[in-house]
Amino acid sequence: MSSSSSSSSHKIKVDSYNTNTHQVTLYAAAHTAQVQRRFEVALKPGKTDIDIENLPNGVEEDTLRVEGYGDDGVSATIVDAVCLPLTPKPIEKESSEIVELRKKISFKNKVLESIQAQENILLTYSSNLTPSNTPASELSSYLSLSSSKSLELAQSRTKTDEEIQALETELDVLLAGKKEEQEEKGKSVESRERRKADELLGRRRRTVRVLVEVEGSVGKEEEQAKEVTVNVVLIYVVRGAGWSPIYDIRANTAPSPTSPTNEKSGRSYQSQQKVPLSIHYRSSITNATGEPWINTQIVLSTASPLVGSTIPTLQPYRLGFPHPMLHSRMSQQGERMDSFGAPQMAYAAVLPPPPAPGNMMKRTMMSVRSAQVGGGGDDEGRGGGGGFAQRSAEVEGTGATMSAVFRIDGRSDIECDGGAHKVSIAVLKLDAELSHITVPSAIASAFLQASVKNASPYPLLPGPTTIYLDGSLVGRGRMGDVSPEETFKVSLGVDGAVRITFHPEEKFKTTSGGILSSKTENVSFVQKVTVENTKPLPVTILIQSRFPISEDQKIIVRLVHPSSSLPAQDSDGQGGVTRWVEGKREEGMIEWSGKVGAREKKIWKYGWEVEGAGWVARPH
């Protein structure tokens, strides 16, 4: 930090790399971060310009805010704060010795080119000389001249090559010395971090000029000359940063069924239908802003500050006709003609309404849907046990803003390298109720599924998951929006102890009608699914399947078993229920749910009838 003063005002320069990054608030949806920097300066009474240099070029100028206060009751006022225009970082010039050497090397290379041109001329001229068209005296004279000239050019070439080699050796020595000097200067942490940032985002940096006025005692020269300490707080939003959640989900079915209590947590479970489940809630932080954040307080927010607060205006929903094609042929009456000369019909065009601005926004945390974890997806999570203490985050609700804030314990270092930095938020200890689900027409396997209530105060945001069952990796999935007290589901992979058999479809064909009436063809179908539970405990299972739906009124499809109306109880009285899949009745989706006892095998069957002739099954 250097200072200079004049009779009217003072000027001070502060390198932002030497200031304290007090707090960084990252926003999940906006790819921005709010940075709060603090530093102290010694100022004389009066007005002082403070130039805060080397800020990243992604600073949002309209978010700039500066606060200041003096020690020991000193009054300090921030008069103005402005971002100066972007200026390129000055490129270090080469020394005069290096420049002169480069010029000499360039000149010598041109001399070599001239020697090569002369040699080419001699070679071309000699190739055109023949004994038949050249007198013997001239030929002898030329050979003598050519020999001496070729020798002279060869000597010049050798000498020039040696001179170039000597100059290049001298240049290499100078460049090596310069590189060592630069490496010596760059040994500090600040210099290394600055080089990384410059390499990532280029050499352009921002400067913020802050005008501070410090009050002094009028008429007392000693007081006027005395410097006072002023604390400056610089707050700004910068682009190129953000965070996203990642999850390790670990379910444990190891406790013995005979023991009603889990010794590790002290919680009771009914057989293996309820098990402990932990969620390792972490954040993946990226910093490509152009500045490192060293020893800073990290705050993670679910708010979207760049979405704005303007309520969208509903636009008209219009219908119209398509514009006439420029290249279509027109008849004499003005009708549009197709490529065969036939008049075309006029088609009404339905113009979709413009997308509502809200549809372009990512929803905030409290606007939630049911969540499903499982299936595809990817994540950087790894397996392995723990024994180390986990840092946690304090979660804060922000009231009417419908968002949440996670304040990470301790201080963190987030370098500006564009990579993903993992920071722990919390480890959530929850209970999970287990059940099985199968879609046998697609995969004849029973998937173990956990139904989990988020009994923590932490809202869960959409993000990739890595799922472990009894310490083994079973798959990867994706978490949805889950608010506190909301229930979500987690797929724990295929359970080989519950076997599923999807039997071939049974088909029965009958024909009615005769000579005096039209023939009617009826085809009946029966589909069976067998569930075999090889476990010593009963399991709850959900089977999802389908029956065909008609696309033509001449084809009539009727569900005939277990009943023409659903839901329907099993006829065997074991408590199973067949019903429509919620919201998918028109698509012909049905499901059966019930319990299958220990070492028990159970068959679920359903049937339908198709009335009509000549129908075919369409591909899915």
Q: Estimate the strand proportion.
A: 35-45%
Contiguous helical run count: 4
Extended strand count:
34
Straight-line N-to-C gap: 72 Å
Quickly give the structural class. Answer: alpha+beta
Average of the residue pLDDT scores: 76
| C-alpha geometry | flat
What can you tell me about this protein's structure?
The protein has 620 residues and is an alpha+beta fold. Helix content is 16%, strand content 43%. It is built from 4 helices and 34 strands. It has helices at residues 96-127, 136-185, 189-201, 221-225, and strands at residues 2-5, 9-15, 20-27, 32-43, 46-55, 59-70, 76-83, 87-88, 204-214, 228-239, 241-251, 274-287, 293-301, 319-320, 329-330, 336-337, 349-350, 371-373, 393-397, 404-408, 412-414, 420-439, 443-453, 463-469, 472-479, 487-502, 506-512, 520-533, 539-546, 556-561, 568-569, 577-580, 589-596, 601-611. It has a 16-stranded mixed beta sheet that branches. Strand 32 (577-580) and strand 33 form a beta hairpin. The longest helix is centred in the N-terminal third of the chain and has 50 residues, at 136-185. Mean pLDDT is 76; it is low at 1-8, 199-203, 256-271, 327-372 and 375-389.
